[in-house]
Structure formats: structure tokens, C-alpha cells
Amino acid sequence: MTKTTLSGAADGALLIQGVSKTYQQKEGPVLALADIDLSIAEGEFVSIVGGSGCGKSTLLRIIAGFETDYQGRVTLGGKAIQKPGLDRGMVFQEHRLLPWLTVEQNIALGLNGMSEAQVRQRIDDHLELVGLTGFAKAYPGQLSGGMSQRVAIARALANQPQILLLDEPFGALDALTKIQMQNEALRIWQAEKMTMILVTHDIDEAIFLGDRVVVMSARPGTIKTIVPIHLPRPRDRTSADFMALRRTIYGEFFTQATTEVDFAI
Predict the structure, then answer these.
(1) Residue 71 vs residues 8, 44, 218, 237: alpha-carbon distances, Å
(2) Euclidean distance between CA atoms 165 and 155, whole angstroms
(3) What is the pTM of this model?
(4) What is the pLDDT of residue 183?
């Protein structure tokens, strides 16, 4: 089986070596991931795309430490990932805010072992980072979908993780809010200079945000190819170069590279 490896291992690199994952179901074992080799350098923004069932979210959960029953090895900065940790923050498609807590209380959930002043400063800093200064006392039910996802990002960043894992975080948003949130994610990445890994169905989103796009195939999930994105930022989604990359990645999923099928499902 062909292995695809990203170069760039360093002190803060994420290394995924020979990772396979099998789920036990009534019908028998199902191989979700097969022999994944991948390395992500510190400070990279890597997008992972693939159809439903290709194992991309499973791979993200393994990196997060939520999935521990797998074959292979995953390390961050040379240390094996064996459970969830504060060095990895995660944002899901649903914001998962606790509705009975205010914005500031949601952000503070994981801020343990800090003084009240330190917690207050951390909350204020991250509300400012995501553009929600003034909403500390609001409840999730008073926020729009985009605002709620900003709070979820602030909560994930408040512990100052090395890596932010994004599992289709903008998939449930309307088209305009989605573009706004993509711009926000890029701004935060540039401001924080941290590693980000995005799982998405949306090829345009993957190209717009990523330094590289990892294309996965399904049954079992494998890395089909990795496409480097050398476009300067900010990126023009209507440029010829952007569209050429779009056709290249579409061509990995469809027989005709020019097929105009909306892959953002």
C-alpha cells in the first residue's frame, strides 16, 4: 500500500505513522483507516478533504486523543498521544456550548489552576481575538450560529494549545457566514502562529485556508494525494490559479476533472 508522507518533522511537529483503525460492527470488522503516514510541521495549516466515510474525522479524533484503540503511532513534539490533552484544542461542527452558561463561563470551563485575574485576562484576550468583546455576559441562545462558533473557537484556544483541530466547524452555517468564519479562522491562525488541521467536505474552503490539502479516499480511508497550495494570501477564489487547484482536487474524486459537482455536502 502506498504511503504518503509530508516532510517537515521538527520539535513541534505532529507525526502520524502507520495508523490504521478498525471498527467492530454487527456485520463484522470495518477498516476505517489503513496505514496512514503523515507529518505536519509546526505552524502549518493543513486541510483534509474526502467524501463521507473516508475516515477523516476519525483521524482527527485520533490526533485529539479521543480514539485510542488503533494501530500505529501518533506523536506531537516527539511525545506519544495517548489521551486528550490541553496541547490540542478541538472545534466541532456543532458549537457544543453549554446553554445555561454565559459566553465567559463557557470559555472558562477548562481554565483550571489559574487565579481569578488570570482567568479574566484569558477570557478578555480571547473574546477580543474572535471579535466578541462585549458579549461576555450573553448566553448561547442569544447568539447567531457564527457567533456561537467564535465562542467555541475562543474556548478551544483559551488553554493555548499547540494545535487547533477543526472538524467541519463551518458546515452548518449559511454561505455568507461561512465565508466570514473562514476569514476569521485565517486571521486567528496568522495572529496565533499555531498549527491548525481542518477536516472539511468543502474543497474551496480547503484551498482557501490550507498550506496543503490532504485528499483522502474511502473504504478503507487512505491518503490518495497531497496538493501543496502555493497561492499568496489573501487568496482570490475567482483567480485562474485557484480554479486550477480546484479542478485538480475535483479530479481526484471524479472521472472528469472538469465536472462541476458541488462537493461541499
Answers:
(1) 23, 25, 18, 39
(2) 13
(3) 0.88
(4) 93
Pairing of strands 222-228, 71-76: unpaired
User: What is 44-79 written as a DSSP string?
Assistant: -EEEEE--TTSSHHHHHHHHHTS----EEEEEETTE
- DSSP summary character for residue 171: T
237-256, pLDDT tens digit by residue?
999 999 999 999 999 988 53
78 plus 174 within the same structural domain: yes
- pLDDT, residue 11, reads 65
**Residue 3 clears pLDDT 60, i.e. is over it:** no
Residue showing cell 482567568: 119
107 with 118, same domain?
Answer: yes
* 233 belongs to a structural domain: yes
Per-residue pLDDT for 174 more than 80? yes
Residue 17 lies in a domain: yes
Number of domains making up the chain: 2
Tell me the residue length of the chain.
265
Domain housing 114: 98-160
Q: Which residues, at least 6 apart from 109, have a Cβ–Cβ distance to it below 8 Å?
A: 98, 101, 155
